[in-house]
Each structure stands twice: as C-alpha cells, then as structure tokens.
Amino acid sequence: MEPYRELARGLGEKGVIVLSDVEHVIMKSDRSLTEVFKLFDLIHILTTDHNIITRITKEVIEDFASENVVYLELRTTPKRNDSIGMTKRSYMEAVIEGLKAITAADVDFMPCDDTDARSGTNSLPIIGSICNGTARKKIYVRLLLSIDRRETTEAAMETVKLALELRQFGVVGIDLSGNPIVGEWTTFLPALKFARDEGLCITLHCGEVPNPTEIRSMLDFLPQRIGHACCLEEEEWKKLKSSNIPVEICLTSNIRTDTISSLDVHHFADLYKGKHPLVLCTDDVGVFSTSLSHEYKLAASAFGLGKFEMFQLARNAVEFVFAEDGVKRELRELFLFPGFAAWCSLGAIFGWSIPKKAPYKLDILAVARPSILLF
C-alpha cells in the first residue's frame, strides 16, 4: 500500500488532507467490504489530480505488461472536481495521456476498423520471442467507464455520453460499481439502456451483498458480464446459470472482504463444474495486494486445476472480452500457436512477484498470455 501512502503524503504536504487521519485506512491489510469502500472513497480523493491520474494509469499498464498480460480492460470512474478545474472529460483525457506515455511496452488502445488488416508492427509478437524475451511486449488496453452508485441519473447519462465520445480512444463499455448498499438500480437503468442501444458493452457489479430484487433485475437486463455474484439465493442462482452471463471472478477480493468465507465454499467451483462462462480477474490490485498471476495460481491450487484446465480458462476468456472482433481473432491465434504444447512442460507454475504499484481504483479483466501459464 506504499503508493497510496506516497500519494496521501503529497496531498498532506499541500494541505488537502491530514495524513495522520487517513494513514491507518491506507495501511490496514484485512478490510471488510465496508472498510474497502471507505478506502475507495479515499482513493477518489487521492486521484483527483490530472498529473496523478496520468502517472498511475501509466504505471498500472506497465505493471500488467511486465506480468505478460496481453489484453487488459481497465475500468475507472470519471470524476469531477470543480476546485481544480477537473471535469469528467479532463479526467479521462488524463487517463488517455497515461496510455500514450507508456514506453516499457507497445500499447494498442486505438481500435481498428474490423476490416483493417492487423499486420507488421500492429500484430502480436511471435510467441517464441515472447518466451525467450527477445520481443518487445505488446498489450491491448481497452477502457470501461464506471457509473458510481452514488450518482444521479443525469450524472450516469453524462458518463455514458462521454464513453461514446471516447470510443476512438479504446472505450468499449460501461460498468456499474461502487458501494453496493448505496443507490437504486432504477436510477441507473436509463443510462445503461442508452449505452446498450448505442452499442456499448455492459458489465455490472452484481450480488456483492444480498439484494434479491436488484440481483434479479440485473440478470433480467442481460448484461454482457457481471462481477462477483457472491450473494445469490437459489432463484437468482438458477437464473444466472440459465442466462449464461459470464462472471468475473475475483478470488482474493471475495475472501479478503469476507464476502465469501473461504475458497472451499467459493462459487467458482460450482460454476466451473457446470461449464458456466468465467473470467479470472483481479479486482483492485493495489487494495487487495494481488496480481493476475496470483489469481491464476490461487485458482489452480484451490480448485485442483491442471495445466490444460488453466490454459483453457485463459483461452475461454478471449470470448468474453469487450474488444473488437479483430483483437479477439489475434488473441485466439495466440492460443493456437502449434508450439505451445511443448511449452507446457517447462518450468514451475507462476514464479513471479506481485506488482507493488497500481494506486488506482481499477477493476481489471485481463487475458493471460500463454507464457503466463507455463508449468
């Protein structure tokens, strides 16, 4: 959590906050769901500066690229801060500047027309080069703009319209997130319907707390994905399974917030056994001190998944990303590389360190490169 403390210290020096008042919130390692959202509130304060937004966007993506992630969806809530002249648009412009500032990897965040050929420098590196470290890493990054559950219908609509205006910069969808005990589903429904009608993909934080009426309404909406799905009763559980809506699974987040008591009873096992669409995700890497590598390792060890199962889990995630079809084709081709079977006999699984940066309220869907799955 040191990056959060560093940002807080800087704002403390400017007199924006009192460091001693917030330091205990930052440094606490085990947090309940309520405490996590208190920390997110603090992060919102820490990230209402254009330069900070640019910096941490850059650092987040570089961390994931160094981890061999090939496709990354970042979701962030556009914020307004009249005291420093920040609008939702200028906030997102700062995010985009962070994307442009990356030098440690090649970043593809500008969607191509699906009829355009992706070749040469725009194509993914040869897999053998990835494995031996001779190729420069490339990562596809797409953005989801989050509607905060504290917002009004008008504010939610503003976020959706901004997402539509920024499609050329890699914005592919809308997320509904924030404190699950705040706000009403009907408040955000008009904006979400508008987003869907305009072709944006939708993912919803769903079932973080028990709320059968809202959960049923969310499932009836048929978003392209939902996140967590931890607190579903039998009726909602059946509805989820019959709908086949892909679920973003965040193992570490669910355990550390006590949303799920232990991995032994985590719903991943039931969904996986039933061949329900699943994607392993990180939730917020900084808040939960995790990484995509760690989430894959955790799933493998907790649920007894072998190298073939882990490969398929990563490969199947390609079908649930929000990127354009051209990117999906390239990701599929990466997993079809004929030499990959030989790789799977190499090394030990997941021998990498957890990124220590990423002081950013981001929920992340990431597709592992095959090299992240070496055994």
UniProtKB/TrEMBL annotation:
- Which CDD domains does the annotation name? ADA_AMPD
Cofactor section: Zn(2+)
User: What keywords are assigned to this protein?
Assistant: Hydrolase, Metal-binding, Nucleotide metabolism, Zinc
**Highest taxon of source:** Eukaryota
A biological process (GO) of this protein is: adenosine catabolic process
Pfam family name, one: A_deaminase
Q: Which GO terms describe its molecular function?
A: adenosine deaminase activity; metal ion binding
Sequence similarity: Belongs to the metallo-dependent hydrolases superfamily. Adenosine and AMP deaminases family.
What's this protein's name? Adenosine deaminase domain-containing protein
Taxonomic lineage from the root: Eukaryota, Viridiplantae, Streptophyta, Embryophyta, Tracheophyta
